[in-house]
Automatic annotation (TrEMBL):
It comes from Bacillus carboniphilus. GO terms for molecular function: hydrolase activity. Belongs to the peptidase M20 family. This is Zn-dependent hydrolase. Keywords: Hydrolase. Residues 206-306 form the Peptidase M20 dimerisation domain. PANTHER family: ALLANTOATE AMIDOHYDROLASE, ALLANTOATE DEIMINASE-RELATED.
Amino acid sequence: MVNSERLWSRIQELALIGKTVDDGVNRFSYTLEEHAANEKVKQFMEEAGLEVSYDAVGNLIGSKAGEEDLPTILIGSHVDTVPNGGKFDGALGVLTGIEVMQSLQEQGINLRHPVKVIAFKDEEGTRFGFGLLGSRAVAGHLTHEDLERKDQQGISIREAMLERGFNPDKLHTAEMDHVKLYLELHIEQGKILESQGVSVGNVTGIAGPLWLKVKVVGEAEHAGATPMGQRKDPLVAASLMIAEIEKLASSYPDAVATVGSLSLTPGGVNVIPGTVEFTIDLRDVQEDIRDRLESQIREFADQIGRDRNIEVVIEELQRVSPVLCSDDIQAVIQESISELEVPVVSLPSGAGHDAMQFNGLFPVGMIFVRSKDGISHNPKEFTSREDAKAGADVMLKTLLKLDQE
């Protein structure tokens, strides 16, 4: 078992770096606050007996050699945050990996496989609007073109890397091979575990986001002088589409659909809108289901356009494939959960994680711990000390079992 007091103390200590007046956390990639957090995590890694280094893009890596010449087991998450974020998102996963390795060291348990605990650079994408930067580099997916992306001050990722002492010209050296599998522990950021009354759960997969922008073009006219039967109102058409999107998504067990942005022009109180634009975020762990939902939404939108003599244009903004967690790793996680004598709950992740970048490269597995009220990306984000310990104990048990395979 792990040392829950040490784990909890480190969570609180790390949360002081970048702390906001609202008791939230601001730690954005390649900033002084994020660097200070990494240096604190480096200290924890060294206390756990890990050999610590930074790679070319700034991933912080704590390594432990194995007793045999076998592929490496990766454990990771991140310490960067969204604006005014919480203290558990990402950080709990990194600190749990460190605690597991320190507990094994103190118990005199040596693993057959080498292990690397990684604090990935910039998972959230807050500063540059481009997330999963560190895990992209490890997977070999980060390009030199990506490094030209700029923040709101016009500073590129490349320039930010150089400012912190990293080497963008050696980007390729961050890529890892000879990897057995990847494990990640994360807060759920939802309410499923809480509704089931359990502290820890097995993740079946990570839903891939598909983002669409819908433009509905009607005719702007005088609100008082245009009879209802003669209007080409794009807002009414968009409203029908949005209602149908909710209905269609609700017909699938794990699919979600969100209209998160809506704008209309010209925007006068006495003017029928001429153009409406809104976004759609579609997610499901099964790509065929997500794509089927997309087709149904497109068909409905086209039909509304024809029925109302209104132009409808749908643009794809982003399409990311979902990731299914390894059945073999899931089985081990489920077995480890059952050993805590609590019900085994398996659930999908609607949010994205670093694990997504390793799809098709090597097996991945994820462990969720309960989030109070499902709140995340918020200073009120909270996971109890008991739940954090339960998650860490499952991680330790899972690692020991996978190391013997």
